[in-house]
């Protein structure tokens, strides 16, 4: 799936930073309820379906179900994230080492309608690709609120074992552990911002013709 072009619409963040304060943020999800009694449930879902079906978005998202009776749509997709390569912290003078690494995260979007409006929920559900093949441990450390220290400890323990097996000296292993939290903060912030931009874009597609 095509990488979500967050940079192309990052300016939209300024339009809804105030709205984000009203969003419900959990460890790996963000949701917001939009009041809109003037737009019927069927029209909300129809316009959302059009948004997901356009050429660019259809490469990233797949509509899993659309139930007009329940007023519900479920969509799955993926987001590619670029983040700082921790190897540069271990070997800052080594040439040819990539500045950033790429990871892919699965996400799920749910749109639920009722008589008073609709809610949009964006949830990160898994990690599909990670350089060191520790997708589950990495994913556990992604958190939109704050990085869980126990999950971080488990990740650092596994990475210490891997680095030691690859003959990385203790001093460098300690540098990796000391800096790993910032890596997860960076990824979590990126995913949260992606979720906010996506939700805002869907909302704009739903209400734009009413304005």
Task: Write structural notes for this entry.
The chain is α+β, with helices and mostly antiparallel strands and 211 residues long. It has one domain: Alpha-D-Glucose-1,6-Bisphosphate, Chain A, domain 4, CATH 3.30.530.80. It has 7 helices and 6 strands, in the order αββααββαββααα. It has helices at 13-20, 41-53, 55-58, 87-90, 135-141, 149-165, 170-207, and strands at 24-25, 29-35, 61-67, 72-84, 100-114, 117-129. β5 (100-114) and β6 form a beta hairpin. α2 (41-53) packs across α7 (170-207) and α6 packs across α7. The longest helix is centred in the C-terminal third of the chain and has 38 residues, at 170-207. The two termini are 32 Å apart.
In short:
With 211 residues, the protein is of the alpha+beta class. It has seven helices and six strands; from the N terminus they run αββααββαββααα.
Low-confidence stretches: 1-21
Calculate the terminal CA-CA distance, rounded to whole Å: 32 Å
CATH C-level: Alpha Beta
Strand content: 25-35%
Main β-sheet, in a few words?
Answer: 6 strands, antiparallel
Q: Level of helix content? A: 40-55%
In total, the number of strands is 6
Return the CATH architecture.
2-Layer Sandwich
């Amino acid at each position: 799936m095509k990488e979500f072009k967050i940079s192309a619409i990052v300016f939209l963040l300024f339009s809804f930073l105030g709205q984000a304060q009203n969003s419900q943020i959990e460890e790996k999800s963000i949701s917001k309820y939009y009041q809109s009694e003037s737009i019927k449930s069927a029209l909300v879902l129809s316009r959302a379906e059009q948004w997901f079906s356009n050429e660019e978005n259809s490469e990233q998202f797949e509509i899993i179900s659309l139930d007009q009776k329940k007023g519900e749509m479920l969509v799955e997709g993926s987001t590619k994230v670029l983040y700082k390569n921790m190897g540069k912290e271990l070997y800052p003078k080594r040439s040819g080492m990539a500045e950033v690494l790429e990871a892919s995260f699965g996400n799920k979007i749910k749109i639920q309608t009722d008589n008073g409006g609709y809610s949009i929920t964006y949830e990160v559900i898994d990690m599909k690709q990670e350089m060191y093949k520790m997708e589950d441990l990495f994913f556990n450390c992604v958190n939109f609120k704050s990085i869980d220290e126990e999950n971080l400890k488990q990740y650092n323990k596994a990475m210490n074992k891997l680095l030691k097996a690859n003959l990385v000296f203790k001093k460098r292993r300690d540098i990796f552990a000391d800096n790993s939290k910032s890596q997860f903060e960076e990824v979590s912030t990126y995913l949260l911002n992606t979720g906010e931009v996506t939700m805002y874009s869907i909302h704009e597609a739903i209400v734009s013709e009413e304005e």
